[in-house]
Write a structure and sequence with these properties.
Rossmann fold; 20% strand; 5-stranded parallel sheet; 2 domains; 7-stranded mixed sheet; disordered N terminus; alpha/beta; globular; single chain
Amino acid sequence: MKTTTRLIAAAALAACSLGAYAQKGETVKIAWIDPLSGLMAPVGSNQLKSFQFFAEKFSKTNPAGVKFEVIGIDNKLSPAESLNALKAAMDQGVRYITQGNGSSVAGALIEAVNKHNERNPGKEILFLNHSAVDPDFTNSKCSYWHFRFDADTSMKIEAMTTFMKDDKSIKKVYLFNQNYSHGHQVVKFAKENIARKMPGVQIVGEDLHPLAQVRDFSPYIAKIKASGADTVITGNWGSDLALLVKAANEGGFNGKFYTYYTGVTGTPTALGQGGAGRVYQIAYGHYNMGGQMDKWSAEFKQKFNDDFYTHSVVRIYQALGDAMAKAKSTDPVKVAAALSGLKFSTHNGEVEIRKADHQLQQPLYMTVWQKADKKFPYSPENTGMTLAPVKEYPSYVSSTPTSCQMKRPG
């Protein structure tokens, strides 16, 4: 009888052990759905390389023991093309997708994933949002199947204007943004925060321009100069920021720029030696983070002759590895439950995926464009310049409330 009991106990222990590592050795496919053609192709190409580079890194070190494989699909920055890409990914057995360039695309994918998961129990898909920052995605349009690893616009504007309010030289602000949901949200939250924190500051103009279509921004710069603005707030990214700052340099606009994406492909070269001390970036990371991130950045640059800047890629792999180990599974339903509310360690401390809305709570950094030096040596696009940190905002400062009423399975 005792022998039988011991055998049952041993079998149970073995079963538990097997369950703990049931996912070890599995390949987890992630479909990357972003632009590889058009004006935003350089940004997409950089980010695809980033996802593939870190897939190799974290396949060797993640606690779940899984192997990550990234499948890149060009969506041409189109919501319709993205839905086709989603179907193609599902046809290949993909259960995890990532996207970030264009909130219009992200909104279409969230809706499509919600419908698919509702209609196809047992074949659920998770959406890992690396860069689409429309606050609605973790508020009125929040989804259990969507996890955002960038900071949303409300968080970035909260930190940005907290920094700006102490600069008494700012008197007149111009809002210049892309004409889609992201740009509209930058305008909305900039107006609200300036009114609340900087009541003496005037908003002297605003423009919304077509996304990834404008090649000459000199007429806009002339308009900004004519307004008397000393500061521009812009959520522009990719070619829309690179060409904007190029036109500002050529047009002699000497005001400040407060941006989200100065460090992204093309903009450092467009700035060159110009804009020192006048161009700021609010983001969840920067080029001079130190430690392991600096080592990875140096290796990435040596391998691709390119700069690594989408730090959310690292956090996605860290979170997935921890969640899969916690869930003892790669099943998206179990992994989603483990990701919801997950706290995990990163290169800049512990961060948390807020359970209420699946928005990552993380520190934000204000940096300024200046000459690279011994203290801040990294030079994006070999410009001799860098983004030097001037202020860190802990998670509790940059965090903003959520109105999410999340519908959870079961």
